[in-house]
Amino acid sequence: MSVFTTVSNDDIVPFLQRYSLGQLVELKGISAGVTNTNYFVTTTHGRYVLTLFETLRADELPYYVNLMVHLAQHGIAVAAPIANLQHQYIDELNGKPTLLVPCLPGAVIDNPNAEQCGQVGEMLAQMHLAAASYSGKMDNPRGPQWWSATAQKMYPFMSEADAALLHAEVALQSEHKFDQLPQGVIHADLFRDNALMNGDQVGGFIDFYYACNDILLYDLAITLNDWCVLENGDIDDARARAMLAGYQSVRPLTEAEMADWPIMLRAAALRFWVSRLLDFYQPAEGEMTFAKDPSHFQRVIAHHAARQNFWMN
Ligand SMILES: Nc1ncnc2c1ncn2[C@@H]1O[C@H](COP(=O)(O)OP(=O)(O)OP(=O)(O)O)[C@@H](O)[C@H]1O
Ligand SMILES: N[C@@H](CCO)C(=O)O
Description:
The chain folds into two domains: 9-102, Phosphorylase Kinase, domain 1 (2-Layer Sandwich), CATH 3.30.200.20; 114-312, Aminoglycoside phosphotransferase (APH), C-terminal lobe (Aminoglycoside 3'-phosphotransferase, Chain: A, domain 2), CATH 3.90.1200.10. It is an alpha+beta fold. It is built from nine helices and nine strands. Helix content is 40%, strand content 15%. Helix 6 packs across helix 8 (255-281) and helix 8 (255-281) runs antiparallel to helix 9 (295-306). The protein binds adenosine-5'-triphosphate (ATP) and L-homoserine. L-homoserine is lined by residues 189, 191, 272, 275-276, 292. Residues 2, 30, 32-36, 38, 49, 51, 79, 101, 103-104, 108, 193, 196, 206-207 line the site of adenosine-5'-triphosphate. It catalyses: L-homoserine + ATP = O-phospho-L-homoserine + ADP + H(+). One of its GO terms (molecular function) is homoserine kinase activity. Its EC number is 2.7.1.39. Keywords: Amino-acid biosynthesis, ATP-binding, Kinase, Nucleotide-binding, Threonine biosynthesis, Transferase. Belongs to the pseudomonas-type ThrB family.
């Protein structure tokens, strides 16, 4: 359940008076999501999603919120933030910073087909191109320095064999530099639960709160590792090829990107192996995460390692 901060009709009515969205019809908590409090707010003008930020402070939000505004201006399928009468996107309710966006069409899906993976790949590439003119800057808080330091803390919790595998994977990545690859603004967490699919079309990408400036290929690898991977951690060829084709229909990969693709897939899996280990063994105090299985990404890496030459065909 992810209503951490309760909002009542008495709270929302004066809040809505600060916007041009009509009168309240219905307020309904959203159960999905693990970080923030989300409500569907229906008014006489339409349906909106209200987010109350549980961990990010108001002064940390502009990079993400302005990015969503920028992408929406370019026609990317994201929810465009709605400004209040003071022309501010970030407001406050019950002591938490808030954001109101329109409700996007579609639903989160568990089992995407190849067509949907192709559409996600295409929209991701469009997003990368559209974000090239975004001026905000944010370092990746979950980059190689972070995963090396965090892995160190995880070894004592792990079996000797698994710790050795993790250690070897961190070492492999530290020997590899991706300096020559195109960079830009990336979503950095575009898992299936961060996109709404409207049939085969992308209804919208959501949850931009890991977005940062980093390598574009890394974003594609993160996305493919979730959308196009089977339960056992192996790649689903048809979905993976569809996502790559969709992406490249908009932004063809450079030769350097092609050469680094197999190792980048492993980097993207490593980042989530480590973050899931951390959530599993050392959950942040007060954080209500449903720890996801870290070993899934260990298996994804094993499959990528075994299929190093798969992408050449
Ligand atoms: N603009 C939107 N339109 C329709 N539904 C939305 C929208 N934004 C969020 N949702 C719904 O709310 C749910 C929770 O949102 P989200 O995943 O962003 O939660 P969170 O707790 O903020 O993030 P996370 O769980 O990834 O840490 C989504 O699964 C989706 O069903
Ligand atoms: N998408 C992440 C959680 C949020 O960063 C995972 O599945 O591990």
